[in-house]
Design a protein that fits this description.
Length: 296
């Protein structure tokens, strides 16, 4: 079963590839599509396409930033003699001019600064860092990031439930007050007709007045808008209970529909008492729109 998943998350850990260990940090934020950015040692460049495809498969949407750094080999991992012998072997391969112009200490300092030269067998190392090996090590970190995004999604879901409750309450209030509002504007219209006929000394048949009021009533009828709004709120409730894979896109569509219905309700009702209700409802829809941008 799918869960509400945010596009915002963070994960950090180690990625072991053969005998080598890499420190990895992953951070994802909102994006309309999928974006992959990374910084890594050059030995991992061949695995970029594999890592990108795996990340898109697991995360689906969002902007992903990855920082990968190789963990430095400490002095405890090898004996001093082994280090010195390795450095002496490398030193013998340096150009003669470096030997003539630099002391042994200076040459060792240059070699020590190059982490790639601390290893005795570069061929074996390069064989270990294959796209397949990197993919296996990288997948667990992606799963950890995905779990963090789901935890964030669960926290955001509580806000969506609150928005749903507020919108439902506002719609119930409008439905309850609507008969009184209708009666009020009918009374007002009749009073205007009576004042007009009295002032102009006119006689307007009751049937004509009833027809005019009926036409105005049809223009102000909001039964369809209330019914459609109920349907949209029902879809929102379904998404909260059983989130689809494209939750973010569906929430964004619902926001457009809800905003349209509440705007129409506001324009048609034209009642000072309910104007505040429709305004508060549209503010809740804007909150929903903001939250919808966070979901996968």
């Amino acid at each position: 079963m799918n869960t509400l998943t945010s596009m915002t998350g963070f994960a950090a850990g180690e990625m072991k590839v053969g005998s080598r260990t890499f420190k990895v940090q992953l951070k994802s934020v909102n994006h309309r599509f999928f974006e992959f950015r990374w910084r890594a040692p050059r030995e991992l460049f061949a695995a970029e396409n594999t890592m990108r495809a795996l990340a898109k498969q697991i995360l689906r949407r969002g902007s992903l930033d990855i920082l990968i750094e190789e963990e430095k080999v400490s002095a405890q991992d090898q004996s001093i003699d082994a280090y010195v012998n390795s450095l002496l072997d490398l030193d013998s391969q340096l150009p003669n001019r470096m030997h003539n112009q630099m002391s042994l200490y200076e040459r060792f300092d240059i070699l020590i600064r190059n982490a790639d030269l601390w290893r005795n067998n570069a061929t074996v190392v390069n064989e270990e860092v294959t796209p397949e090996a990197v993919s296996r090590a990288f997948e667990s970190l992606l799963q950890s990031l995905d779990q963090d995004r789901k935890r964030e999604g669960a926290a955001l879901a509580a806000q969506l439930k609150t928005i749903h409750a507020h919108l439902s309450k506002y719609l119930e209030k409008i439905a309850a007050e609507l008969p009184n509002v209708t009666k009020e504007w009918e009374t007002t219209l009749y009073a205007k007709y009576e004042a007009l006929t009295s002032e102009k000394n006119l006689t307007i048949p009751e049937e004509r007045i009833a027809q005019e009021i009926l036409m105005i009533a049809e223009r102000r009828d909001v039964a369809e808008e209330i019914a459609r709004t109920k349907v949209h709120l029902g879809h929102l409730e379904e998404i909260l209970k059983a989130p689809p894979l494209d939750t973010g896109k569906k929430l964004d569509f619902l926001c457009q529909e809800l905003h349209r219905e509440w705007t129409t309700l506001s324009n048609k009702i034209q009642n000072q008492g309910l104007a505040r209700v429709t305004m508060d409802a549209k503010l809740e829809v804007e909150k929903l729109r903001e939250q919808a941008q966070n979901f996968v």
